[in-house]
Amino acid sequence: MNKVFVLGNGASCCCGIPVSKNILSELIEINDKLYQFIDYFQPELIRNGLIPNIEDVLNYIESISELVSDYEIWDRGKLKEFEAKYDKIRYKYTQDEYETKIKSSRLFLIDLPFEVQYYKKDLLCKLSNYLWGFYRKQITGQMYLNKFVKDCISLGDTIITFNYDLLLEKSLENNEIKYSYLKKLKDGVRILKMHGSINWYLQNTKSDEAEDKNFNELVNDYGYCFQRIFKINKNTNVYQFKTNYINQLDMDNFPPYLIPPSAMKKYPELFKELWGLAYEVLEGAGEIKILGYSLPPVDNFAKFFFRRLMLIKKSFGLNKNITVYLPRRDKKIVSTRYKKGISSEIKYVPSTFENAIRNGLL
């Protein structure tokens, strides 16, 4: 029976990477502008000492970007007219008080499109730097991913993952197995990274943005460190940074190409291709094993995929089994998101990723 593995954040937790709801607290400090940006939108969390899910924050940023890029009220000239109205009441405050008030509100009155893109880049670079650190160092928990690759994966397989990190790639390298991100390999493994990867970078040769200009120069000067994995159009490409050159180039200042799970996804071409390939792979599988993926409510595309697969199985009597491996503490998630949201026929094995590997549950 053709078997396909789907990996979520739980597969990386064995190496010390926090789940997505906890990772943001590792990336920001109270004095960061990014922290203040988050506080503006979710003050009830921040003021209770809590940090929101990083994917929720990325979705905030994406939603705001869509709004301000199309709505004329955010035009710089109109915003300055808007700000001028407040000059009429400045007599109520001392100069210092007035400047403080304008400064505290300016972020959301002037240059909002620029500011939002700054926070997006800042957050993506922080996340990238943090996750690259796990690739660079020796981690005891890596042995579980190494064993997973050695015992469960065969040449020609496709692995679907919702993770941004490179720990799966590291284990394939440790086992001397070639991999690609889109092309199916007979002598290697194809990885479909549904939300992107920290070693993917978008190049736009017509962009006037400084980071794109810098990245263009980097590709021109160090072309051997990169491999184009997707051509969106004649001016836009997606490049993979080859991990064997990690000690030669510092990529920390370049935001990776990631698309977080969202209820209102507007997919770029690469991700349309990825989801199409993933559906083909899952549709052809007799057995699907989902490891450490909690099926976030906001990720409607994933829910649609699994729901459609189970409906096809039911309608045509196909032999298609889906098994979810999540810790016992997540039993309610399985009950509500998988069994009620997709199909009661989904099997549940209460186990962490490392326990499933250690005890041969796969």
Q: Indicate the proportion of strand residues.
A: 15-25%
CATH topology of the largest domain: Rossmann fold
CATH architecture of the largest domain: 3-Layer(aba) Sandwich
Unreliable spans: 106-110
Key phrases:
15 helices, 3-stranded antiparallel sheet, Rossmann fold, 7-stranded parallel sheet, globular, 3 domains
How do you describe this structure in short?
The chain has 362 residues and is of the alpha/beta class. The chain has 15 helices and 12 strands.
Describe the structure.
The chain is of the alpha/beta class and 362 residues long. The strands form three sheets. The chain has a seven-stranded parallel beta sheet, sandwiched between helices. Strands 6-8-7 form a three-stranded antiparallel beta sheet, with helices on one face. A two-stranded antiparallel ribbon has the order 5-9. Helix 5 packs antiparallel against helix 8 and helix 9 crosses helix 10. The protein starts with a strand and ends with a helix. About 1% of the residues have low confidence.
Layout of secondary structure:
Layout: E1 3-7, H1 10-13, H2 20-23, H3 33-41, H4 43-46, H5 54-70, H6 76-86, H7 95-106, H8 112-136, H9 142-152, E2 158-161, H10 167-174, E3 178-180, E4 188-193, E5 196-197, E6 200-204, H11 210-221, E7 226-233, E8 236-241, E9 257-258, H12 269-283, E10 287-291, H13 300-316, E11 321-326, H14 331-340, E12 347-350, H15 353-358
Helix pairs in contact: 5-8, 9-10
